[in-house]
Amino acid sequence: MIRKVDIKNPVEQARIIRFCCLHEMGDMDYARILFDQILEPNVVIWNTMIRGYSRRKAPRDAALVYLEMLERGFGPDHYTFPFLLKAFNRQMTLDCGKGFHGKLFNKSSKRDVVSWNAMISGYNKIQRYQESQKLFNEMEKENVEPSAVTLVLVVSACAKLKDLETGMKVHQYVKDYRIATSLILENVMVDMYAACGKMDLALGLFDSMKVRDVITWTTMVSGFTNSGQLDRAREFFELMPERDYVSWTAMTDGYLKANHFKEALEIFREMQGANIRPDEFIMISILTTCAQLGALEVGEWIRIYIEKNKIKKDVFVASALIDMYSKCGNTKGALEIFEDMPHRDKFS
Protein backbone atom coordinates (compact mmCIF):
# COMPACT_ATOMS: atom_id res chain seq x y z
CA MET A 1 0.00 0.00 0.00
CA ILE A 2 1.35 3.44 -0.93
CA ARG A 3 1.66 5.64 2.18
CA LYS A 4 3.68 8.53 0.81
CA VAL A 5 4.22 10.13 -2.56
CA ASP A 6 6.88 12.69 -3.34
CA ILE A 7 5.26 15.22 -5.67
CA LYS A 8 6.01 18.87 -4.88
CA ASN A 9 4.71 20.69 -7.97
CA PRO A 10 1.28 22.19 -7.09
CA VAL A 11 0.04 21.94 -10.68
CA GLU A 12 1.05 18.29 -10.87
CA GLN A 13 -0.52 17.60 -7.48
CA ALA A 14 -3.82 19.10 -8.59
CA ARG A 15 -3.74 17.22 -11.90
CA ILE A 16 -3.17 13.83 -10.24
CA ILE A 17 -5.81 14.44 -7.57
CA ARG A 18 -8.28 15.40 -10.26
CA PHE A 19 -7.52 12.20 -12.17
CA CYS A 20 -7.85 10.03 -9.06
CA CYS A 21 -11.15 11.65 -8.11
CA LEU A 22 -12.87 11.93 -11.46
CA HIS A 23 -11.54 9.12 -13.66
CA GLU A 24 -13.21 5.72 -13.47
CA MET A 25 -9.76 4.15 -12.95
CA GLY A 26 -8.82 6.68 -10.28
CA ASP A 27 -7.84 5.76 -6.71
CA MET A 28 -9.38 7.84 -3.90
CA ASP A 29 -6.92 6.42 -1.34
CA TYR A 30 -4.02 7.71 -3.45
CA ALA A 31 -5.81 11.05 -3.87
CA ARG A 32 -6.19 11.35 -0.10
CA ILE A 33 -2.50 10.57 0.53
CA LEU A 34 -1.47 13.26 -1.95
CA PHE A 35 -4.08 15.69 -0.62
CA ASP A 36 -2.74 15.35 2.93
CA GLN A 37 0.68 16.53 1.76
CA ILE A 38 -0.70 19.87 0.52
CA LEU A 39 -0.37 22.47 3.27
CA GLU A 40 -2.86 24.98 1.85
CA PRO A 41 -5.26 23.30 -0.58
CA ASN A 42 -7.31 25.81 -2.56
CA VAL A 43 -11.08 25.56 -2.81
CA VAL A 44 -10.83 23.83 -6.21
CA ILE A 45 -8.86 20.95 -4.68
CA TRP A 46 -11.25 20.71 -1.73
CA ASN A 47 -14.16 20.55 -4.13
CA THR A 48 -12.42 17.92 -6.23
CA MET A 49 -11.98 15.67 -3.20
CA ILE A 50 -15.65 16.12 -2.21
CA ARG A 51 -16.70 15.43 -5.78
CA GLY A 52 -14.53 12.31 -5.90
CA TYR A 53 -16.17 10.82 -2.82
CA SER A 54 -19.60 11.84 -4.10
CA ARG A 55 -19.04 10.03 -7.40
CA ARG A 56 -18.16 6.89 -5.46
CA LYS A 57 -21.30 7.12 -3.34
CA ALA A 58 -19.27 7.75 -0.16
CA PRO A 59 -21.37 10.47 1.52
CA ARG A 60 -19.70 10.23 4.92
CA ASP A 61 -16.23 10.70 3.42
CA ALA A 62 -17.51 13.64 1.35
CA ALA A 63 -19.06 15.17 4.49
CA LEU A 64 -15.87 14.66 6.50
CA VAL A 65 -13.81 16.45 3.84
CA TYR A 66 -16.32 19.31 3.89
CA LEU A 67 -16.17 19.58 7.69
CA GLU A 68 -12.37 19.49 7.56
CA MET A 69 -12.50 22.25 4.98
CA LEU A 70 -14.48 24.44 7.38
CA GLU A 71 -12.30 23.62 10.40
CA ARG A 72 -9.22 24.69 8.47
CA GLY A 73 -10.77 28.02 7.61
CA PHE A 74 -11.73 27.48 3.98
CA GLY A 75 -15.16 28.67 2.88
CA PRO A 76 -17.30 26.85 0.31
CA ASP A 77 -17.97 28.33 -3.10
CA HIS A 78 -20.97 27.82 -5.40
CA TYR A 79 -19.62 24.41 -6.53
CA THR A 80 -19.05 22.92 -3.07
CA PHE A 81 -22.64 22.21 -2.03
CA PRO A 82 -23.77 20.75 -5.37
CA PHE A 83 -20.86 18.28 -5.23
CA LEU A 84 -21.58 17.48 -1.58
CA LEU A 85 -25.32 17.07 -1.99
CA LYS A 86 -24.95 14.71 -4.94
CA ALA A 87 -23.40 12.17 -2.56
CA PHE A 88 -26.69 11.80 -0.73
CA ASN A 89 -29.73 10.07 -2.13
CA ARG A 90 -32.92 10.11 -0.08
CA GLN A 91 -32.13 6.86 1.79
CA MET A 92 -28.63 8.02 2.67
CA THR A 93 -30.05 11.21 4.11
CA LEU A 94 -32.43 9.21 6.29
CA ASP A 95 -29.59 6.95 7.41
CA CYS A 96 -27.51 9.96 8.42
CA GLY A 97 -30.37 11.62 10.24
CA LYS A 98 -33.13 14.03 9.34
CA GLY A 99 -31.89 17.42 8.18
CA PHE A 100 -28.34 16.17 7.70
CA HIS A 101 -27.73 18.59 4.83
CA GLY A 102 -28.86 21.44 7.03
CA LYS A 103 -26.60 20.28 9.84
CA LEU A 104 -23.63 20.40 7.50
CA PHE A 105 -24.62 23.88 6.38
CA ASN A 106 -25.03 25.01 9.99
CA LYS A 107 -21.44 24.00 10.68
CA SER A 108 -20.32 26.80 8.39
CA SER A 109 -19.34 29.88 10.34
CA LYS A 110 -19.70 31.97 7.21
CA ARG A 111 -23.46 32.01 6.64
CA ASP A 112 -23.62 35.06 4.41
CA VAL A 113 -25.82 35.41 1.35
CA VAL A 114 -23.15 33.79 -0.84
CA SER A 115 -23.22 30.62 1.29
CA TRP A 116 -27.01 30.57 1.31
CA ASN A 117 -27.02 30.94 -2.48
CA ALA A 118 -24.53 28.09 -2.84
CA MET A 119 -26.74 25.81 -0.75
CA ILE A 120 -29.92 26.76 -2.62
CA SER A 121 -28.14 26.31 -5.94
CA GLY A 122 -26.99 22.88 -4.80
CA TYR A 123 -30.54 21.77 -4.06
CA ASN A 124 -31.72 23.12 -7.41
CA LYS A 125 -29.04 21.17 -9.26
CA ILE A 126 -30.14 17.89 -7.66
CA GLN A 127 -33.80 18.82 -8.23
CA ARG A 128 -34.68 19.16 -4.54
CA TYR A 129 -36.67 22.32 -5.16
CA GLN A 130 -38.76 22.18 -1.99
CA GLU A 131 -35.55 22.23 0.05
CA SER A 132 -34.52 25.34 -1.87
CA GLN A 133 -37.74 27.03 -0.81
CA LYS A 134 -37.25 25.99 2.81
CA LEU A 135 -33.79 27.56 2.82
CA PHE A 136 -35.21 30.77 1.40
CA ASN A 137 -37.74 30.86 4.26
CA GLU A 138 -34.92 30.28 6.75
CA MET A 139 -32.99 33.17 5.22
CA GLU A 140 -35.94 35.44 5.93
CA LYS A 141 -36.17 34.24 9.54
CA GLU A 142 -32.46 34.94 10.05
CA ASN A 143 -32.81 38.37 8.43
CA VAL A 144 -30.33 37.57 5.67
CA GLU A 145 -31.12 39.90 2.80
CA PRO A 146 -31.43 37.93 -0.45
CA SER A 147 -29.46 39.02 -3.47
CA ALA A 148 -30.65 39.04 -7.06
CA VAL A 149 -28.98 35.63 -7.42
CA THR A 150 -31.06 34.29 -4.52
CA LEU A 151 -34.26 35.46 -6.15
CA VAL A 152 -33.33 33.89 -9.49
CA LEU A 153 -32.66 30.56 -7.78
CA VAL A 154 -35.87 30.60 -5.75
CA VAL A 155 -38.09 31.64 -8.67
CA SER A 156 -36.50 28.90 -10.77
CA ALA A 157 -37.46 26.40 -8.05
CA CYS A 158 -41.00 27.79 -8.04
CA ALA A 159 -41.24 27.28 -11.81
CA LYS A 160 -40.23 23.62 -11.46
CA LEU A 161 -42.74 23.08 -8.65
CA LYS A 162 -45.43 25.19 -10.37
CA ASP A 163 -45.67 27.04 -7.05
CA LEU A 164 -47.49 30.21 -8.05
CA GLU A 165 -48.00 31.46 -4.48
CA THR A 166 -44.31 31.55 -3.56
CA GLY A 167 -43.36 32.84 -7.00
CA MET A 168 -45.76 35.76 -6.68
CA LYS A 169 -44.44 36.40 -3.18
CA VAL A 170 -40.92 36.77 -4.56
CA HIS A 171 -42.16 38.98 -7.38
CA GLN A 172 -43.89 41.22 -4.84
CA TYR A 173 -40.68 41.32 -2.81
CA VAL A 174 -38.85 42.63 -5.89
CA LYS A 175 -41.46 45.37 -6.28
CA ASP A 176 -41.70 46.34 -2.60
CA TYR A 177 -37.97 46.59 -2.04
CA ARG A 178 -37.26 47.98 -5.49
CA ILE A 179 -34.74 45.28 -6.26
CA ALA A 180 -32.74 46.14 -9.36
CA THR A 181 -34.07 43.65 -11.87
CA SER A 182 -31.91 42.02 -14.48
CA LEU A 183 -32.82 40.26 -17.70
CA ILE A 184 -32.07 36.91 -16.02
CA LEU A 185 -34.40 37.63 -13.10
CA GLU A 186 -37.19 38.87 -15.35
CA ASN A 187 -36.81 35.84 -17.61
CA VAL A 188 -37.16 33.37 -14.73
CA MET A 189 -40.23 35.22 -13.48
CA VAL A 190 -41.82 35.03 -16.95
CA ASP A 191 -40.93 31.33 -17.00
CA MET A 192 -42.48 30.82 -13.55
CA TYR A 193 -45.80 32.41 -14.57
CA ALA A 194 -45.80 30.43 -17.83
CA ALA A 195 -45.04 27.17 -16.01
CA CYS A 196 -47.96 27.86 -13.68
CA GLY A 197 -50.27 28.44 -16.65
CA LYS A 198 -50.72 32.13 -15.86
CA MET A 199 -50.03 33.47 -19.33
CA ASP A 200 -51.86 36.74 -18.58
CA LEU A 201 -49.32 37.49 -15.82
CA ALA A 202 -46.44 36.30 -18.00
CA LEU A 203 -47.63 38.58 -20.79
CA GLY A 204 -47.98 41.54 -18.44
CA LEU A 205 -44.40 41.12 -17.29
CA PHE A 206 -43.20 40.52 -20.85
CA ASP A 207 -44.81 43.78 -22.00
CA SER A 208 -43.18 45.73 -19.15
CA MET A 209 -39.65 44.48 -19.90
CA LYS A 210 -37.31 47.07 -21.40
CA VAL A 211 -34.95 44.41 -22.74
CA ARG A 212 -35.88 40.97 -24.07
CA ASP A 213 -33.75 38.22 -25.55
CA VAL A 214 -34.36 34.97 -27.39
CA ILE A 215 -34.96 33.21 -24.04
CA THR A 216 -37.77 35.65 -23.16
CA TRP A 217 -39.51 35.13 -26.48
CA THR A 218 -39.06 31.35 -26.45
CA THR A 219 -40.49 31.16 -22.93
CA MET A 220 -43.63 32.93 -24.15
CA VAL A 221 -43.92 30.62 -27.16
CA SER A 222 -43.57 27.53 -24.93
CA GLY A 223 -46.01 28.95 -22.41
CA PHE A 224 -48.69 29.53 -25.03
CA THR A 225 -48.19 26.10 -26.62
CA ASN A 226 -48.39 24.38 -23.22
CA SER A 227 -51.62 26.19 -22.43
CA GLY A 228 -53.13 25.20 -25.78
CA GLN A 229 -52.99 28.70 -27.30
CA LEU A 230 -51.26 27.69 -30.50
CA ASP A 231 -52.33 30.75 -32.49
CA ARG A 232 -50.82 33.08 -29.88
CA ALA A 233 -47.70 30.93 -29.77
CA ARG A 234 -47.32 31.16 -33.55
CA GLU A 235 -47.94 34.91 -33.41
CA PHE A 236 -45.08 35.36 -30.93
CA PHE A 237 -42.91 32.94 -32.88
CA GLU A 238 -43.34 34.98 -36.07
CA LEU A 239 -42.57 38.22 -34.19
CA MET A 240 -39.30 36.95 -32.71
CA PRO A 241 -36.34 39.19 -33.69
CA GLU A 242 -34.14 36.09 -33.68
CA ARG A 243 -34.69 32.37 -33.20
CA ASP A 244 -32.43 29.63 -31.95
CA TYR A 245 -32.70 25.86 -32.00
CA VAL A 246 -34.78 25.88 -28.78
CA SER A 247 -37.29 28.31 -30.30
CA TRP A 248 -37.87 26.15 -33.36
CA THR A 249 -38.16 23.04 -31.18
CA ALA A 250 -40.69 24.72 -28.88
CA MET A 251 -42.98 25.61 -31.77
CA THR A 252 -42.61 22.20 -33.42
CA ASP A 253 -43.30 20.33 -30.17
CA GLY A 254 -46.32 22.54 -29.51
CA TYR A 255 -47.93 21.49 -32.78
CA LEU A 256 -47.01 17.84 -32.28
CA LYS A 257 -48.54 17.69 -28.79
CA ALA A 258 -51.76 19.11 -30.21
CA ASN A 259 -51.70 16.61 -33.11
CA HIS A 260 -51.31 19.44 -35.63
CA PHE A 261 -48.96 17.42 -37.79
CA LYS A 262 -49.13 19.48 -40.98
CA GLU A 263 -48.19 22.66 -39.10
CA ALA A 264 -45.33 20.83 -37.38
CA LEU A 265 -43.99 19.73 -40.74
CA GLU A 266 -44.32 23.27 -42.05
CA ILE A 267 -42.22 24.58 -39.14
CA PHE A 268 -39.62 21.89 -39.76
CA ARG A 269 -39.31 22.93 -43.41
CA GLU A 270 -38.87 26.57 -42.36
CA MET A 271 -36.26 25.38 -39.88
CA GLN A 272 -34.26 23.86 -42.72
CA GLY A 273 -34.50 27.13 -44.64
CA ALA A 274 -33.02 28.93 -41.64
CA ASN A 275 -30.07 26.49 -41.59
CA ILE A 276 -30.89 25.25 -38.08
CA ARG A 277 -29.55 21.72 -37.64
CA PRO A 278 -32.01 19.48 -35.78
CA ASP A 279 -30.94 16.73 -33.40
CA GLU A 280 -32.19 13.16 -33.15
CA PHE A 281 -35.11 14.15 -30.89
CA ILE A 282 -36.56 16.50 -33.49
CA MET A 283 -36.01 13.85 -36.16
CA ILE A 284 -38.04 11.34 -34.12
CA SER A 285 -40.83 13.90 -33.73
CA ILE A 286 -40.91 14.67 -37.45
CA LEU A 287 -40.84 10.99 -38.41
CA THR A 288 -43.81 10.48 -36.07
CA THR A 289 -45.56 13.28 -37.95
CA CYS A 290 -44.82 11.62 -41.29
CA ALA A 291 -46.20 8.34 -39.95
CA GLN A 292 -49.43 10.01 -38.85
CA LEU A 293 -49.87 11.82 -42.16
CA GLY A 294 -48.76 8.92 -44.35
CA ALA A 295 -46.14 11.27 -45.81
CA LEU A 296 -43.77 8.65 -47.20
CA GLU A 297 -41.94 11.01 -49.56
CA VAL A 298 -41.11 13.42 -46.72
CA GLY A 299 -40.14 10.48 -44.49
CA GLU A 300 -37.74 9.24 -47.17
CA TRP A 301 -36.22 12.70 -47.38
CA ILE A 302 -35.80 12.72 -43.59
CA ARG A 303 -33.96 9.39 -43.77
CA ILE A 304 -31.56 10.76 -46.40
CA TYR A 305 -31.13 13.95 -44.35
CA ILE A 306 -30.23 11.90 -41.23
CA GLU A 307 -27.63 9.87 -43.11
CA LYS A 308 -26.18 12.84 -45.01
CA ASN A 309 -25.80 15.00 -41.88
CA LYS A 310 -24.63 12.11 -39.70
CA ILE A 311 -27.30 12.70 -37.09
CA LYS A 312 -27.13 10.11 -34.32
CA LYS A 313 -29.10 7.12 -35.53
CA ASP A 314 -29.81 5.26 -32.31
CA VAL A 315 -32.46 2.62 -31.62
CA PHE A 316 -35.12 5.31 -31.10
CA VAL A 317 -34.48 7.01 -34.45
CA ALA A 318 -34.41 3.62 -36.17
CA SER A 319 -37.67 2.59 -34.48
CA ALA A 320 -39.28 5.85 -35.62
CA LEU A 321 -38.15 5.15 -39.19
CA ILE A 322 -39.58 1.62 -39.03
CA ASP A 323 -42.87 2.99 -37.68
CA MET A 324 -43.00 5.61 -40.44
CA TYR A 325 -42.38 3.06 -43.20
CA SER A 326 -44.88 0.62 -41.71
CA LYS A 327 -47.69 3.17 -41.40
CA CYS A 328 -46.97 4.45 -44.90
CA GLY A 329 -47.32 0.90 -46.25
CA ASN A 330 -43.65 0.46 -47.20
CA THR A 331 -42.72 -2.82 -45.54
CA LYS A 332 -39.56 -3.14 -47.61
CA GLY A 333 -38.18 0.11 -46.20
CA ALA A 334 -39.12 -0.91 -42.65
CA LEU A 335 -37.33 -4.25 -43.09
CA GLU A 336 -34.19 -2.56 -44.43
CA ILE A 337 -33.94 -0.33 -41.37
CA PHE A 338 -34.67 -3.26 -39.05
CA GLU A 339 -31.94 -5.43 -40.58
CA ASP A 340 -29.39 -2.59 -40.38
CA MET A 341 -30.00 -2.01 -36.66
CA PRO A 342 -27.00 -3.07 -34.51
CA HIS A 343 -29.21 -3.11 -31.42
CA ARG A 344 -32.94 -3.63 -31.17
CA ASP A 345 -35.51 -3.06 -28.45
CA LYS A 346 -38.86 -4.77 -27.98
CA PHE A 347 -40.64 -2.04 -29.97
CA SER A 348 -38.46 -2.32 -33.11
Q: What can you tell me about this protein's structure?
A:
- With 348 residues, this protein is mainly alpha-helical.
- It has 4 domains: 1-110, Alpha Horseshoe (Serine Threonine Protein Phosphatase 5, Tetratricopeptide repeat), CATH 1.25.40.10; 112-211; 213-270, Serine Threonine Protein Phosphatase 5, Tetratricopeptide repeat (Alpha Horseshoe), CATH 1.25.40; 277-348, no CATH class.
- It is built from 21 helices and no strands.
- It has helices spanning 10-22, 28-36, 43-55, 59-71, 80-85, 90-96, 100-106, 113-125, 129-141, 148-161, 164-176, 183-195, 199-208, 214-226, 230-239, 245-257, 261-273, 280-293, 296-308, 315-327, 331-340.
- It is flat and about 70 Å long.
- The mean pLDDT is 88.
Blueprint of the fold:
Layout (H helix, E strand, L loop, with lengths): L9 H13 L5 H9 L6 H13 L3 H13 L8 H6 L4 H7 L3 H7 L6 H13 L3 H13 L6 H14 L2 H13 L6 H13 L3 H10 L5 H13 L3 H10 L5 H13 L3 H13 L6 H14 L2 H13 L6 H13 L3 H10 L8
Summarize the structure.
This protein has helices spanning about 10-20, 30-35, 45-55, 60-70, 80-85, 90-95, 100-105, 115-125, 130-140, 150-160, 165-175, 185-195, 200-210, 215-225, 230-240, 245-255, 260-275, 280-295, 295-310, 315-325, 330-340. The chain has about 350 residues and is an all-alpha fold.
Shape: flat
Using the CA coordinates, give the radius of gyration.
Answer: 26 Å
Strand content: under 5%
Q: Gap between N and C termini, in Å?
A: 51 Å
Order of helices and strands: HHHHHHHHHHHHHHHHHHHHH
CATH superfamily of the largest domain: Tetratricopeptide repeat domain
Major sheet details: none
Q: Number of DSSP helices?
A: 21
Domain module count: 4
Q: Helix/strand/pairing class, anyone?
A: mainly alpha
Number of strands: 0
Percent of residues in helical segments? 55-70%
Low-confidence stretches: none
Chain-averaged pLDDT: 88
CATH topology of the largest domain: Serine Threonine Protein Phosphatase 5, Tetratricopeptide repeat
Q: What is the CATH class of the largest domain?
A: Mainly Alpha
